[in-house]
Write a structure and sequence with these properties.
Length: about 575
């Protein structure tokens, strides 16, 4: 009865096992009692021991299953199994690890009782003495219900442990839920505070400072070109190329992007328009709720930017990126009709252009870019930033990026766009360019020429390169809307013509004779009635003027076409002069 009382008293599991061991030793006058547990993975180990003289056996791993030897028989038969003299009994199956314990303790008689709960093997209770002894049915009759009681108590203790673990987990979840709720409330309060500042007419610096305080860091607001607009403090030692790449990803994925050093970049957008970025250096890693707050700060800055733009905000959002579309459409309409910018709508369009710092009367070039792979959204975000930095505009037409850029050198503009955009995308970018446009009424024509240059580049297997009308030579002459022969001739043989005019030489005639003779200096000399050495010296001078590659097939073809056009124009001009003299 004392034993039953002990076993139903609440104990921590290991204490309960020691109580079971002590009671078993006392009831059956045993020298050693050890309890072996079976793990969930099927392996077994010694969990507790009473009466041992070699304590290092505690925790010994006994291998898979409830064990071999006597334990294996006991679980197989589900009854106690014993031997009067374990070392000398040849009928007992052996278990190397438990036999090692028996030898270290000099045990002779051993009994193994299975500890089971239904069909579940919880372990084995071993009892042993250091003398030869037979276990009577009465002793086994006492030991078996003791083992059953022990199994029930073990199962009960295990359930209590699982219950405590579940309670601990629930407490942890409750604590996490409370913490999360607190953070959500903080997020809501901060979001409300930022919105109130915007609605109350606070400046950009005030909103940025409030966001920086809420996020415990230094926050900088940058325009689409990457230039700081305001900052609560300086942000030294930033990896600016990495920040630029992160800004593109943020605009493409619509999520803040993390950089090393607790630096975050969040896009400031209104619809599809790039209004800039927020750059945050936090004092500690941001939680998920902090990232949400950073996105809310970006929305607040976007709202404030639109409000401060006044008229632009009243017109409905992404005016800058839509302006180039409007200009192209109006220019095409103007070319189809009278070409005047006189009605109210046109004057309003020009006023919008001036408000954005773009001079309608200044020369501009058009660059049409097509990424040959990669993410078009990232390319579009970059184009918005680039146009803002350079004082231009951007649009997207037929899956291509269209840039209106101030300047007169279309080729240089195309090369610059390709050089900056290709490394960011990790793919080549094909660019066609045209211009300059004298004014915005010619914008549609210049755009079409740039688009034709890009198409010609593709047709000539030049994908990934750059091309303007001047770069394409006679192909550019054909693609040009005004077929500017003079420009083509000047680009091909202008230095030779200038040299002849300045020094009264005949390098142009020498070129014609050279090509007509199939590239033979000797035959050229015969046609020109000069010595072959004279032709050779003239060809050397031509190489100095036109460069080393003028005799290559493509360049030579352009030079021959330019010579033909030049002579044809001379003949036509002479013919017109003659007719005038006759009249």
């Amino acid at each position: 009865m004392d034993t039953v009382h002990d076993l139903v008293t609440p104990y921590e599991l290991d204490t309960l096992l020691r109580v079971i061991g002590r009671r078993a030793r006392r009831l059956l006058d045993l020298h050693l009692v050890c309890i072996v547990f079976t793990r969930p993975d099927g392996t077994s180990y010694i969990r507790t021991s009473e009466g041992e003289t070699v304590p290092y056996h505690l925790g010994m791993d006994l291998g898979p299953g409830p064990g071999s030897g006597l334990a294996g028989l006991a679980h197989e038969r589900r009854v106690p199994v014993w031997t009067a003299d374990h070392p000398a009994d040849p009928a007992v199956p052996r278990s190397p690890r438990i036999d090692e314990v028996f030898r270290a303790e000099a045990l002779r008689a051993v009994v193994a009782v299975p500890l089971r709960h239904g069909d579940i093997a919880l372990g084995t209770l071993y009892g042993a003495v250091r003398a030869v002894r037979r276990f009577s049915p009465d002793e086994l009759g006492v030991l078996l219900p003791l083992a059953d009681l022990a199994a029930v108590a073990i199962e009960k203790a295990g359930r209590q442990e699982r219950t405590r673990d579940e309670v601990t987990e629930l407490e942890h979840l409750s604590s996490s839920a409370t913490t999360t709720l607190t953070r959500v409330r903080h997020l809501w309060d901060c979001h409300t505070r930022l919105a109130r500042l915007v609605l109350d007419g606070a400046g950009l610096a005030t909103v940025a400072r409030a966001a920086a305080d809420a996020l415990d860091g230094v926050l900088q607001v940058r325009d689409p070109g990457g230039h700081p607009l305001t900052a609560a403090d300086e942000l030294p030692d930033l990896d600016e190329p990495a920040v630029a790449r992160a800004a593109l990803r943020a605009h493409t994925t619509f999520r803040p992007v993390e950089l090393p050093g607790n630096v975050w970049v969040a896009a400031v957008t209104a619809g599809a328009e790039n209004l800039g970025v927020l750059v945050l250096r936090a004092a500690a890693p941001l939680t998920e709720e902090d990232v949400r707050l950073l996105r809310a700060a970006a929305l607040s800055v976007a709202s404030l930017t639109l409000i401060q733009r006044g008229t632009a905000a009243a017109e409905g959002g992404p005016v800058r990126d839509e302006l180039l579309q409007d200009l192209l459409d109006r220019s095409a309409c103007a070319e189809a009709t009278c070409g005047d910018y006189n009605d109210y709508g046109d004057r309003h369009l020009l006023e919008r252009t001036r408000r954005l710092g773009i001079d309608p009367a200044a020369p501009h070039v058009v660059v049409v870019a097509r990424p040959e792979g990669g993410d078009l959204g990232k390319a579009v975000a970059w184009a918005s930033s680039y146009a803002y930095r350079t004082g231009g505009l951007r649009a997207v037409r037929r899956g291509r990026i269209v840039l209106l850029l101030p300047g007169t050198d279309a080729s240089a503009a195309a090369r610059q766009v390709s050089a900056e955009l290709s490394p960011l995308l990790g793919h080549p970018v094909s660019t066609g360019a045209a211009g300059p446009a004298a004014d915005l009424s010619a914008l549609a024509r210049v755009y079409e020429e740039a688009a034709r240059c890009l198409d010609a580049l593709t047709a000539l297997d030049g994908a990934g390169g750059t091309a303007s009308l001047s770069d394409l030579g006679f192909v550019g002459l054909l693609l040009s809307a005004d077929h500017d022969v003079d420009a083509f001739v000047r680009s091909a043989i202008g230095p030779v013509l200038d040299y002849d005019a300045a020094r009264l030489t005949e390098l142009g005639r020498t070129l014609e004779a050279y090509f007509q003779s199939g590239g033979s200096p000797m035959h050229s000399a015969e046609a020109l009635h000069v010595h072959a050495n004279t032709v050779s010296r003239r060809l050397e001078r031509i190489t100095e003027l036109l460069g080393d590659g003028w005799q290559k097939p493509a360049r030579a073809l352009e030079i021959q076409m330019a010579l033909r056009l030049y002579r044809t124009r001379e003949v036509l001009q002479g013919s017109r002069s003659g007719r005038g003299a006759v009249r």
